[in-house]
Automatic annotation (TrEMBL), chain A:
The organism's taxonomic lineage, starting at the top: Bacteria, Bacillati, Bacillota, Bacilli, Bacillales
A matching Pfam family: Spore_GerAC_N
Lipid bilayer topology: Lipid-anchor
InterPro entries in UniProt: GerAC_N (IPR057336), Spore_GerAC-like (IPR008844), Spore_GerAC-like_C (IPR046953), Spore_GerAC_C_sf (IPR038501)
Species assigned in the record: Psychrobacillus soli
The protein, known as: Ger(X)C family spore germination protein
Family: Belongs to the GerABKC lipoprotein family.
TrEMBL record, chain B:
Keywords noted in UniProt: Germination, Membrane, Transmembrane, Transmembrane helix, Transport
Pfam family, one: Spore_permease
Protein localization: Membrane
Source organism phylogeny: Bacteria, Bacillati, Bacillota, Bacilli, Bacillales
Membrane topology: Multi-pass membrane protein
Transmembrane annotation, as ranges: 12-34, 40-65, 85-106, 118-138, 145-164, 184-208, 220-242, 274-296, 308-327, 339-359
Similarity remark: Belongs to the amino acid-polyamine-organocation (APC) superfamily. Spore germination protein (SGP) (TC 2.A.3.9) family.
Protein name: Spore gernimation protein
Gene3D superfamilies attached to this UniProt entry: Hydantoin permease
Length: 395, 371
């Protein structure tokens, strides 16, 4: 009995509660972080959820999120300095977006990313994006309709757009770090920008009209060399890029019909294989694309009840995809000289011995690299109708 | 004088599996990938193969004298003085490893789960159940291991199935890029952790097992199963995280669990997966501590080993707190000193035993006949 009581007393020392517990109402749940740099100081902005405004009972009509900022010589310092203006400690465990300003990206993103990958609370499943032509602070300062929390809006937009249009690519932190550390692939990030009047974006007014005065939009891809941003792709090049790295799930392509006019092809399945090879000491890659598609829309006089016309469309789309991909490869080779496509990794996989000598001056090798693009399109269905709406039935 | 409890072969198998997996599951993928890159899985298999040879040597040594523990074998072979010096080395090693494992578990918990908790708190809690287990005796430990191995395999199965969608076979190519020498070198830590350190199990095998001859088979099978699990985890780390990320992380196994995402519904279950490592870590620690305590008791020919558990337990806690001033000292120790230390105690000494046994075989037989 005495022994039991003694043990109970000892145990109660340890069972008083968690050591450094932090209850839900002591946390500032941060969904987006933006990093800017000005005058050798980091300006970190955090979009923090206001729980009472997003609760099921409905809030008082205030903003669902609030922005807190801190300045410091390092990102960590800036984040901790935020507590000066915040009653709760930041909790980044549910982070969705990390936005880096363009000017900081041009200087290099390696240093600020270190903290983010070292910290124990931050997971690696959020997207990283670059604020194009603006500051990260500005991006986080816009109210959005549909999704009350702007960070969620950005996250979902990136996801939906990546899956349905394929000109953007959602890069998660671990993917980005892998790219930054890899010899055979350079990083890309999606650009994100504010359209309209950013001054109004911050107020609740912004979501009270049908057309918001300011809104957040995704833009094309930013090209990196090592950890520095060196330029932007165009939309077509971005789509070509996505095609090469096999990120396309679903997209729409437009082709010209032989007799003028346009037709839309709805891509259902898109599969790319990149194979490296070394011929006479110079690297080569073979890009093989297999596409399964439906006809999305016909806006030209073509009789799609005939199998031949399907073939024509297939050929036309094959050519179009081939051109897009070739175009984005050659443009990146000429303009940026940085291997964002991971061709180096493909060579590494196929010819590990040659790669060892090649990787030292891979940027040069990459610019001279020959890419053989082969596209195979199969159109399976024509949608719910046969011929075009305006095409009259033949007498 | 000492406990006469005997465990059966299956219980021994369970202990061997948990011991083999032990710390390896947490740190080995990173260590293997650092040198062998995407060929880390080959290094794991190679390490397993070489490890098996070493374990086979241990079973041979054990079965010379089916009723004696390793400490007693030492004394029989080398005589009182030299034997005791070797035994002391062995006890010192197992005791040190207990403290190191306590440090491991403490640092894992404080890095990933509870960063503001002082390591003393986690270590004291773990040390309490450690001492408790050893006081209750081998049979209790073995029985609880039987229960925990089921939990372990369920969790492991969940981990493997749930992480399967994230696998990318690109990550493992090109196969065999690293030359075989380097692969061999990088598999050395695995051999040390999983096979050489298994010499501690000679405190249980064969003296405390009811049928030592059949247990020999289980010793090897347990080592194979444990090795396979480590190989699977390493391969998954490479396939999912890529070789670079695997080497980049301190605890890649934990990072692997973080990656689990089934339809945005089954996510963030890494804390549950941490139970995997804690279970293995705990049982490996118990076996080390048990070997140290029993070994000390036998060396000094005590009637009961239990009085030793409290003071040694306290020393272990303190040692675990002061043993490494910071985490880098630990990685340096693991990569350099520990390997030579383990090679000496766990490979050179047993080989010396083989030589001595070959010379003194006849004489020893005569002695045992007299007795």
């Amino acid at each position: 009995m005495k022994r039991g009581i003694f043990i109970l007393l000892i145990v109660s020392i340890f069972l008083t509660g968690c050591w450094n517990r932090r209850e839900l109402n002591e946390l500032a749940i941060t969904l987006a972080i933006g990093i800017d740099k000005s005058d050798d100081e980091y300006l970190v902005s955090a979009q923090v959820v206001v729980p009472s405004e997003v609760s099921m009972k409905g809030g008082k009509g205030g903003s669902p999120v609030t922005l807190i900022q801190g300045r410091g010589e390092t990102v960590y310092e800036a984040i901790r300095k935020m507590t000066k203006g915040l009653s709760r400690k930041m909790y980044p465990g549910h982070l969705r977006m990390l936005v880096i300003s363009e000017s900081l990206a041009k200087e290099g993103i390696g240093d600020p990313l270190d903290l983010i990958s070292r910290d124990w609370e931050i997971r690696s499943d959020f997207y990283v994006a670059v604020a194009k032509d603006t500051t990260a602070e500005q991006i986080l300062n816009v109210q959005t309709p549909l999704e009350t929390i702007p960070a969620n809006k950005m996250f979902s937009t990136l996801k939906v757009s990546e899956e349905n249009w394929a000109a953007t690519v959602g890069v998660t932190l671990d993917q980005l770090i892998t790219d930054l550390r890899s010899d055979g692939k350079e990083a890309v990030l999606t650009g994100i920008l504010v359209t309209g009047k950013p001054e109004i974006g911050s107020s609740k007014q912004n979501v009270e009209t049908i057309t918001p005065a300011a809104s957040i939009k995704l833009d094309d891809l930013a090209v990196f060399k090592d950890d520095k941003l060196i330029g932007w792709l165009t939309e077509d090049e971005s789509r070509g890029y996505n095609g090469i790295i096999n990120q396309v799930k679903n997209t729409v392509g437009t082709v010209s019909c032989p007799e003028g006019g346009k037709a839309d092809i709805e891509v259902l399945r898109f599969n790319t294989k990149v194979k490296g090879n070394v011929k006479n000491g110079s690297p080569e890659v073979a890009v093989q694309v297999k596409i399964e598609a439906n006809i999305g829309a016909i806006e030209c006089p073509i009789d799609i009840t005939k199998p031949e016309s399907i073939e024509t469309l297939e050929k036309a789309y094959e050519k179009a995809v081939e051109e897009t991909i070739n175009h984005s490869i050659s443009n990146v080779q000429e303009k940026y000289e940085t291997d964002i496509f991971g061709f180096g990794n493909a060579i590494h996989r196929s010819n590990p011995k040659e790669w060892k000598t090649m990787k030292k001056h891979w940027d040069q090798q990459f610019t001279d690299l020959v890419a053989n693009v082969k596209v195979d399109v199969k159109i399976l269905k024509t949608g719910t109708v046969n011929n075009s709406v305006v095409e009259k039935g033949k007498d | 004088m000492l406990p006469t409890v005997k465990i059966n072969s299956y219980q021994f198998l369970v202990l061997v599996i948990l011991f083999t997996i032990g710390t390896s599951i947490l740190v080995i993928p990173s260590a293997l990938a650092a040198n062998a890159k995407q060929d880390a899985w080959i290094a794991a298999i190679l390490g397993m193969g070489i490890g098996l040879l070493i374990v086979w040597l241990f079973t041979k040594i054990g079965l010379w004298f089916p009723n004696l523990t390793y400490i007693q074998v030492n004394e029989t072979l080398f005589g009182k003085w030299i034997g005791n010096i070797f035994s002391f080395l062995f006890i010192f090693m197992t005791f040190l490893y207990t403290a190191i494992l306590l440090y491991y578990s403490g640092s894992f918990l404080t890095i990933h789960v509870m960063p503001n908790t002082p390591m003393a708190a986690t270590n004291i809690l773990l040390a309490i159940i450690l001492v408790m287990a050893v006081r209750l005796g081998l049979e209790t430990v073995a029985r609880s291991a039987e229960i925990f191995i089921v939990i372990f395999f369920i969790l492991f199965f969940i981990l493997v199935v749930f992480i399967a969608p994230e696998v990318e076979f690109k990550n493992i190519q090109p196969v065999l890029e690293t030359d075989i020498n380097k692969i061999f070198q990088s598999s050395l830590p695995l051999i040390v952790l999983s096979a050489m350190n298994a010499i501690s199990l000679l405190m249980i095998f064969p003296a405390f097992i009811n049928r030592p001859r059949s247990a020999k088979k289980y010793f090897l099978i347990g080592n194979i199963i444990g090795g396979l699990i480590i190989t699977i985890i390493t391969t998954l780390c490479i396939l999912v995280l890529g070789s670079d990320m695997t080497a980049f992380q301190k605890f890649p196994g934990y990072e692997l669990a973080k990656k689990i995402n089934i339809g945005n519904f089954v996510t963030r279950i890494e804390a549950m997966m941490a139970a995997l490592w804690i279970i293995c870590l705990y049982f490996k620690m118990v076996i080390y501590f048990y070997a140290a305590v029993i070994g000390l008791a036998q060396m000094f020919q005590l009637k009961d080993y239990r009085p030793l558990t409290y003071p040694l337990g306290m020393i272990v806690v303190i040692l675990s707190l002061v043993i490494f001033p910071n985490i880098l000292e630990q990685s340096v120790y693991d990569a350099t000193i520990d390997i030579y230390f383990a090679l000496t105690v766990c490979l050179l000494l047993p080989l010396l035993m083989v030589v001595v046994y070959a010379i003194r075989k006849k004489q020893l037989k005569k002695n045992s006949d007299h007795a």
